[in-house]
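User: quick one, sequence for these tokens?
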């Protein structure tokens, strides 16, 4: 038998094996209420993909929302993986995209997969509020997507960078997972700040 959740349709467990895994990660009471916070914690800790139809294998685009009037189509011409990919095409509005509302503002994510342009305009990943985790090149060859970002909004969009001409971008095998930010709970744990202002000296240590 299979256990699935209506609010997370791509999260499916086989009762024989995965339920114990769920209980282990989510704690007591999970079998009674399946609340959203526990499920999101499971996704984050297990590195489970958040996107529905990220592999683009469904024969429709129902999982994706058109952004900026984009025309969304599933195509079968030379996919990167499987049988289908998602084409995002210009339809009269700037920066068209395919969007899913699966992020939490302030959380840290990694997006992976493949994208290609149409030979003129480049594909990109946009997270809102000026945050563009990844920008490809216009080449019509598949390019690897691998980028991290802190979400400013509750959505992510796969788009094509065009403002004046008809264009399209293709996306395939896209995954989005929540990760621990660099340094974990520490501020400036990656030591990339130009100063030591986030750190306090202990035993009169000199910090540089």
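Assistant:
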């Amino acid at each position: 038998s299979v256990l699935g959740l209506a609010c997370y349709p791509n999260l499916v467990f086989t009762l024989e094996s995965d339920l114990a895994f769920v209980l282990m990660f989510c704690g007591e009471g999970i079998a009674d209420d399946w609340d959203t916070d526990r499920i999101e914690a499971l996704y984050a800790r297990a590195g489970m993909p958040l996107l529905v139809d990220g592999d683009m294998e469904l024969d429709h685009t129902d999982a994706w929302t058109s952004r900026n009037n984009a025309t969304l189509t599933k195509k079968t011409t030379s996919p990167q993986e499987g049988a289908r990919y998602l084409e995002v095409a210009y339809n009269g509005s700037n920066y068209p995209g395919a969007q899913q509302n699966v992020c939490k503002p302030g959380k840290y994510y990694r997006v992976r997969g493949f994208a290609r342009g149409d030979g003129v305009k480049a594909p990109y990943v946009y997270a809102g509020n000026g945050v563009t985790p990844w920008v490809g090149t216009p080449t019509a060859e598949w390019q690897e997507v691998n980028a991290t970002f802190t979400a400013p909004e509750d959505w992510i969009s796969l788009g094509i960078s065009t403002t004046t001409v008809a264009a399209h971008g293709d996306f395939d095998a896209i995954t989005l997972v929540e990760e621990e930010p660099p340094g974990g709970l520490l501020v400036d744990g990656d030591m990339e700040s130009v100063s030591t202002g986030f750190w306090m000296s202990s035993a009169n240590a000199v910090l540089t």
